[in-house]
Amino acid sequence: MVNRLPPPVDASRQPLRVGAVQYLNTKPLVHGLASLGFDVCYDLPSRLADRLARGQLDVALIPSIELFRGAGYRVVSDACIGCRGPVMSVKLFFRTAPGRVTRLAVDEGSRTSATLARIMLSERFEVRPEIEVLPIGAGLDDTRADAVLLIGDRAIGSHRGSFQLVWDLGDEWCRWQGLPFVFAVWAASAAVADVDLLRIERVLAAARDSGRANLAAIASAEAAAHGLTVPQCLSYLRDNLHYDLGPREREALSAFYAHAVTLSLAPTGLDVARALARST
Predict the structure, then answer these.
(1) CATH architecture, domain 17-82+181-276
(2) CATH 3.90.550.60 fits 90-177, yes or no
(3) Stated pTM of the model
(4) What does the pLDDT look like over 201-222, one tens digit per residue?
(5) Where are the domain boundaries for CATH 3.40.190.10 in the chain?
(6) DSSP category for residue 5
(7) DSSP one-letter code for 153
(8) What are phi and psi of 235, to 5 degrees?
């Protein structure tokens, strides 16, 4: 049974500017959004966070770490991008043992995953490597860093090269903390009116539910473009990803924030419960 999305918004009202991501893992969250009267633009997660901070967007799917760095952001949906085990699309490739990493190359599109990698290297192996930003379009062979972080579509699948170890960062966190992990959340700036927040919350939840009900169709449409078979694509969307921001996910975000503060990767003194509170 296919879930129905809410009717389009009133055309007489100024459309909300919604920022979304075109990674494969976000397809179930944005299923049908553009047809509902929203001004949807697509960009990298890190760039969406910057555009939200500059007031160029009203609502965006941002890296979860940016929820703690932004000024007055509010979570506006119980839809998210998370995992409860291997995520497959966030990987850390090691050319040396984790405890000997002195230089870490991080995907330009990443902020949450880059923070997570630094937390795990510091707290598990007591190393704080120099950071190198890997430009979009660059690959594993374009850096000689001791460890290389890739996210999204570039991380999926097999990779050539000599690596001592490859971490699936979602799985590593889940086994280390005994909690799920949340990579991205829908957030709004403080300037967005409550009436609009209520409207967008309903639509984002419905879009997520519609996407989840149509995973097979999404996999069929997207598999080839991402170098996957349809069964592989469906398995990734259905089994590796989790789309609900529930109590355990909120607990995980609180734990992530606390670890980030320890390394001065997030500001201190944040009321996490308030940051995670939805508009309803």
Answers:
(1) 3-Layer(aba) Sandwich (3.40)
(2) no
(3) 0.89
(4) 888 998 999 999 999 999 999 9
(5) 17-82+181-276, 90-177
(6) P
(7) G
(8) -60, -40
